[in-house]
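Z., the sequence and structure:
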Amino acid sequence: MVQEYRYRSVFNDFLLVTSFKKIRLLHFDLTDKDLEAIAKRCLLLEKVELTCGRLITDSSISFLLQNCCHLGTLHLHYCDNITGIGFLGCPETLTNLKADYCKLTPERISAIVSGGGLEYLRLCRGVPKFKTETIMTISKGCPLLKELSLSDCEEVEPEGWQTIGQNCKYLERLYVFDEEGYESFVQWK
């Protein structure tokens, strides 16, 4: 009870500061209501990093993206309830997304790339196995990509990688991690 009070007290004090441009919340038991409160108060946010946000869902991610019009970078790590649907209609200002150990589904990748502004995309570790169709969806939804990092791509056929080359004209680096975490790196330029 005392720990919860301290957390709430610190969190409420945090909300008094509205000029934050970057926040990094590690191992906080944030709820959707908490993240929405941050989005309402800190309208100038440019970068948000959430680690172990196990209570955060797609609903508050959507709220954050729609209300923080300067948000360019979003890093999510161990956010078990994020499937990707919260990114549907995300703004073009979101240029950098990392999502590791989230519950993304291949069907929801189209929502993640729906904004069209992503330049840096990392979907690694703890994501479902990528298939050719998913890679094609990424290539069509992210024409501005400069760097792409993916894991579990063993089932991707050559035509999937060809679409990356055809559609992502600005791509400079491609990182592909296998099941054990070993990476292959391709530098395009």
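The two ends are 55 Å apart (CA to CA). The chain is about 30% helix and 20% strand.

Let me know what you think.
H.
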